[in-house]
């Protein structure tokens, strides 16, 4: 099949990783896949096209990347299927010529919450596009708010990249890892408050932060890793006993899943997307959404009880590694697109 993905950019991000992984693996299965990406100017489009610029953080990327000045009908290739991957590309796919193939909308978050104007984003979910969502939470939103059904295709973790490895650390334990982000809804401030409360009762707790860029101004991390290379993430996850996810809302949440695959015990808000893998008391400890008191209580339980921590970590790792699989996910996407 000839399959086109409209990808908003090629920078490192969980949603972009999912899009590019599908494109790469579908290419490996013999399909002709193009990833169409808008550049910010015609000059940059020409420069990147001449270089054949692709995602340098995915070695050996096999799908073709086509840079365009903007998404428009004449810039879209002929094909059997064309897939929108964000609210900005959904109207483009809805209006794509018939020669582009069947029209799909790959939904990775309820973007109306935090991206663009809510009424404009909501309108994209009413378009006549077949929807593929990455969590049951998103499927329920599509059904309840937009009377639209959707196929659930949970994004798997790559076991070649994310698995437990031996790590030696010299800091106090337990080590708690948290993703740093400037978006308020990612809950970084809630995470700091949660850790500060728990440290009063578990003084050895060591907060490790990581993110694409270093935080601005004073923060509560004991240790920070700025823009760690992709092949170093497994050691970062494996070197921490607990992963703390204070996000208010997530379409799915790949960093928590990656950390679980590497043997970290997860404590998280009930952020919607986590419901497909964070089973309270079994594979994770789950706190009420935006309830810092509850999140701190859950974190303290894991920090103070090594037995509970080990049990949650083992169950979580097994669940992530066996429930979701890239081979099965790609096969299912093929079936949906056909």
List the helices and strands and how they pair.
Layout: E1 2-6, H1 14-28, E2 32-38, H2 42-51, E3 64-68, E4 81-84, H3 90-94, E5 102-107, H4 118-124, E6 130-133, H5 136-146, E7 150-152, E8 175-179, H6 188-199, E9 206-211, E10 223-226, H7 233-238, E11 242-245, H8 254-261, E12 265-269, E13 284-287, H9 292-304, H10 306-323, H11 326-337
Describe this structure in words.
The chain is globular. It starts with a strand and ends with a helix. It has 2 domains: 2-153, Rossmann fold, CATH 3.40.50.11090; 175-323, Glycogen Phosphorylase B (Rossmann fold, 3-Layer(aba) Sandwich). Strand 5, helix 4 and strand 6 (130-133) form a beta-alpha-beta unit. It has 11 helices and 13 strands. It is of the alpha/beta class. It has a 7-stranded parallel sheet with strand order 3-2-1-4-5-6-7, sandwiched between helices. The chain has a 6-stranded parallel sheet with strand order 10-9-8-11-12-13, sandwiched between helices. 44% of the residues are buried.
């Amino acid at each position: 099949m000839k399959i086109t993905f409209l990808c908003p950019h090629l920078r490192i991000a969980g949603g972009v990783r999912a899009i590019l992984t599908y494109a790469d693996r579908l290419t490996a299965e013999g399909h002709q896949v193009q990833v169409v990406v808008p550049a910010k100017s015609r000059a940059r489009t020409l420069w990147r096209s001449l270089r054949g610029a692709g995602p340098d953080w995915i070695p050996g990327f096999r799908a073709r990347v086509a840079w365009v000045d903007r998404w428009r009908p004449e810039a879209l290739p002929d094909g059997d299927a064309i897939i929108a991957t964000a609210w900005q590309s959904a109207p483009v796919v809805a209006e794509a010529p018939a020669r582009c193939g069947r029209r799909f909308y790959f939904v990775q978050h309820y973007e109306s919450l935090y991206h663009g104007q809510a009424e404009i984003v909501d309108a994209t979910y009413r378009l006549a596009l077949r929807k593929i969502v990455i969590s049951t939470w998103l499927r329920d939103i599509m059904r309840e708010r937009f009377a639209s059904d959707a196929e659930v295709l949970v994004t798997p973790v790559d076991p070649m990249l994310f698995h437990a490895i031996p790590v030696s650390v010299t800091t106090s334990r337990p080590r708690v890892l948290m993703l740093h982000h400037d978006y308020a809804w990612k809950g970084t401030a809630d995470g700091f408050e949660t850790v500060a409360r728990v440290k009063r009762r578990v003084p050895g707790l060591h907060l490790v932060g990581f993110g694409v860029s270093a935080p601005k101004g004073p923060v509560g991390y004991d240790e920070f890793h700025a823009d760690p290379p992709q092949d170093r993430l497994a050691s970062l996850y494996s070197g921490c006993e607990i992963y703390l996810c204070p996000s208010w809302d997530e379409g799915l949440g790949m960093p928590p899943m990656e950390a679980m695959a590497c043997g970290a015990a997860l404590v998280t808000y009930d952020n919607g997307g986590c419901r497909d893998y964070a089973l309270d008391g079994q594979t994770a400890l789950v706190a009420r959404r935006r309830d810092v008191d509850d999140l701190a209580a859950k974190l303290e339980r894991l920090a103070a009880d090594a037995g509970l921590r080990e049990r949650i970590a083992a169950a979580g790792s097994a669940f992530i590694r066996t429930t979701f699989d890239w081979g099965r996910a790609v096969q299912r996407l093929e079936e949906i697109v056909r």
